[in-house]
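Example 9 (inverse folding). The structure is encoded as follows.
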């Protein structure tokens, strides 16, 4: 897997996991993973699914956190930087709105 494609793979895999967690017999066909109709038991007790916490401080990682995440884990990012930096503010607003 090329390093620069890791974000696309992560997004696709999270989407596939959400299907497994929320549908009775999902099937999925993507670029990086696929599966025929499947049953996953036991399903998570969290509704609609366990929280997805996304990490990273690059602009694509921040965008991914806002699009597919329920939270964000910033490494070595101060509260002050998050308050002053527009991309961090957008992630905060989309994850915790």
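The amino acid assigned to each position is listed next.
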């Amino acid at each position: 897997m090329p390093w620069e494609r890791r974000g696309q793979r992560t997004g696709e895999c999270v989407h596939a996991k959400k299907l497994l967690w929320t549908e009775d017999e999902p099937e999925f066909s993507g670029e990086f993973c696929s599966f025929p109709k499947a049953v996953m038991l036991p399903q998570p007790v969290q509704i609609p699914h366990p929280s997805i916490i996304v990490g990273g401080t690059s602009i694509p990682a921040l965008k991914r956190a806002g699009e597919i995440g329920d939270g964000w884990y910033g490494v070595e990012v101060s509260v002050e930087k998050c308050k002053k930096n527009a991309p961090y503010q957008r992630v905060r607003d989309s994850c915790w709105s």
